């Protein structure tokens, strides 16, 4: 059997990883400003994380959601505290798409309505409803097509008001900072407008925090910058530092009913141990504060390069827009300077490093980036 060839890959085999560095099979060291796509939140193979997972594996790795799991309760308590949502409820699953799928379903169960409002360039995942709410026809199969999703222009308050008049809106789903769409930060006024309209029309505000959440923006949820409370927050990527886990954090007004949501693997012992280790390190090492500080430094420095068209983002979720003729810079960073970064469009470099990135790492990147731009 061979692999189903759906990923364009770099010809690099990673054999070792620690903190913000990875090493290939030839021993070459790389600086990782990509974090396997915003997944590595506390740094690769963090000793506390390795120990907590290893200890858990020696006790029990998995049992289903048919028995009591104190680890899930510990996780809910701690996540409530760290995210500042102690009165919310936690449903655990395995990925970002699954988190959004459950959020959209729960919204519809709650208000009995069907229409979902999503935005241009949004990415919410690849499962049926999540992909239908994703603005990329290439990844929507005919079977996923539905009239239940309405796409609106980004940041268009008038279009949003009009949509609420025109449709029976069940939910509005929005990334606080669009990731795949090119690092576009939702304005505080737009997020507040969504909150107001959802309240007015009994619709559910879903904050997709899969990529922009978990401290990456310098606050736990990027939507927190607007001072609004969403009804449901979806999360995944940074939550397990590489161990597959996703979740939704659900406002108190939603009443659970047995069987309404469910999963075989979601919230298993190992996943909870991984997620607890991540939160413990985030707190212990003040990583949200670090993301805010190192991110602000990086953005300020990046804005000093004449050739950079725009620097967008918050904290350690940064998009660097370059002129089309400099689209090759990202490849040079990888092959010449041994620095992993992400890409949004060919000419937007995405930085999604560990939240523990140091100023020295930032300077290493800035020096390499400066060399490439001055070529
Ligand atoms: C904002 C956002 N939502 C949802 C997803 C889907 O997450 P997953 O790949 O874990 O299903 C992603 C993945 O990139 C994402 O960036």
Instruction: Give the strand line-up of the largest sheet.
Output: 4-12-11-10-7-5-6
Coarse morphology: globular
Radius of gyration: 20 Å
Mean pLDDT: 97
Bound molecules: pyridoxal-5'-phosphate
Q: What fold name goes in the CATH topology slot of the largest domain?
A: Aspartate Aminotransferase, domain 2
> Under the CATH scheme, which architecture of the largest domain would be assigned?
3-Layer(aba) Sandwich
Number of helices: 11
Unreliable runs: none
Beta content comes to 15-25%
Structural class: alpha/beta
- Amount of helix: 25-40%
Number of strands: 17
Largest sheet: 7 strands, mixed
What separation lies between the terminal Cα atoms? 45 Å
CATH class of the largest domain: Alpha Beta
Commentary on this structure:
By secondary structure, the chain is an alpha/beta fold. The chain has 11 helices and 17 strands. The protein folds into 2 domains: 121 residues, Aspartate Aminotransferase, domain 1 (Alpha-Beta Complex), CATH 3.90.1150.10; 238 residues, Aspartate Aminotransferase, domain 2, CATH 3.40.640.10. It has a 7-stranded mixed sheet, sandwiched between helices. Helix 3 runs parallel beside helix 8, helix 6 runs parallel beside helix 7 and helix 9 packs parallel to helix 11. The relative contact order is 0.17. The model has no long low-confidence stretch (mean pLDDT 97). It binds pyridoxal-5'-phosphate. Pyridoxal-5'-phosphate binds next to helix 4.
